[in-house]
Design a protein that fits this description.
alpha/beta, Enolase-like, domain 1, 15 strands, eight-stranded parallel β-sheet
Amino acid sequence: MELRIDELSLPLVHQFTIARESESVARSAVFRLRCDGFEGLGETAPSARYDESVASVRAYFATHPLASDDPFAHETLLRNIPPAARCGLDVALHDLIGKLLNRPLWQLLGLDPKGTPTTSFTIGLASIEETVEKLAEIGSHPIIKVKLGAGDDVERIATIRERYAGTIRVDANEAWLPEQAVATLCELERFDIEFCEQPIPAGTPEALRWIRERVGVPLVTDEDSQTAEDLPALAGCVDGVNVKLVKCGGVRAALAMIHTARALGLKIMLGCMVESAILATAAAQLSPLVDWADIDGPFLTAHDPFTGVSYDHGKLELPDAPGLGVRERTGGETVVRT
């Protein structure tokens, strides 16, 4: 097998801001894995939050050649690779195997493509005036996720709820202290919030339990739930976990998280970074297994050079082509968001 890794720059429709950072261009690494005349596409979108970057991913593979030439030898090929780097290779392997076997990935996993959930559409931190403008652009999308942590959280949600009747999720990205989380979420309860994602800094599950006992808004972790090994400590402390391929290390690791969460009685959201259709489609292939989806990376980019998962008023629609079903755009195609 031959592996090539290229950096991909994805200009965004709007500057995307969360409690700890902003970006106008998202950067990911595209993997091209060639074997027997086929090419498997993979992607990883590393986050500095987990001490990883496109540069660190490329540097890893520059000094660590593939451990096998057999694309089916996943245990050997993926062993001991850092999560973000492992994600890109894992996704490329799954795409390649689907193409070698002439089957879409969802079929190889035994999943029903009709069982996909509806994704949320994320609104990053901005002034309330800009938030209203972004909400108007979203239109009738049935679920939104609103980033919080700027200090005007209650006013922001009140303004949105005046104009929007759909489902609202919120995400503080570790911005609050426990007491602040309780105070804010108690005020937000009247706006019918579906759940709050990662209200406080990761690392204190018992603090999450303390918050959960005092608020009516369900809690979902993100930064606290990187891998399957993190989940037992969260059982009874939160209502659900966010599974992201980049955090845990790809499709195989995400499946392990999903099954572990189910065994612990936790609900599951399948999330994404700001990424292209390659990685978003890889995540979407697993979506019939989860309760919620936040796979909106393709909504946030101004031009995505790949197509894959599509959306019917937010409901994920999986490609039926072999592997991921992702293809590269031709020059004349435009990005359509629905």
